[in-house]
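Reading group handout, session on sequence-to-structure problems. Before we discuss, look at one worked example. The prompt was deliberately terse, the way you'd type it at a terminal:

> structure MOSC domain-containing protein

The input record follows.
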Amino acid sequence: MKTDILAVLLGKVRPFRGDDEPSAIGKLPVAHPVAVGPMGLAGDEQADRTVHGGVDKAIHHYPADHYDWWREYLGDAPLLDAPGAFGENISTSGLDEQNIFLGDRFRLGTALVEVTQARQPCWKLNHRFGAKGVMAGVVKSRRTGWYYRVLEPGEVRAGDTLDLVERPYPEWPLASLFGLLIGGEAKDRPAELRALRDVPVLAESWKVRRAKLAEQFGAD
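And the output record:
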């Protein structure tokens, strides 16, 4: 599996809601090569490292393929005229949450990255688009995007390729994983909750969530 990288995007922390809510969700494409390290892309910022960024969320990837669906869902939304509407660092076509799996390893430019979790949406998407239903639309449609951790540093630029190197967990497509841990399906999937305990590449925060759900539904 190989796809072209349509855009590499970076963001700076800026006021988001008045002056009291900083955010770096407004990311813009860059043409130059960007260094990729353990904490993500050089020059990219996150306002609140307790919920954004970090080793397990070093790079955010959102499919350009979803933009047409969002245009139908939201109507006129100028943010959808260019990559970056969802705060993504990487934009591609041909990959989505049905054909990307937890633990997939990709050569991103010259860096090696690993899929750690789907993106859990927050209220900032509603505020960014000026629409109440964006966060709910992400959850219901499973059009979430996903995060990578960086296993080997390197550099990437628009026009490079994203090449699948290894797929160790083909039983865990991201749409299914999101449904299990975030989308309200845990009660009906106790065996999968139990099985997920043995998947070490899952992001640490989602390991905690899995454990809580497993305790709640007697799946440990």
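Points for discussion. First: The chain has a mean pLDDT of 94. Second: The helical segments are 67-74, 124-129, 134-141, 174-181, 190-196, 204-216.
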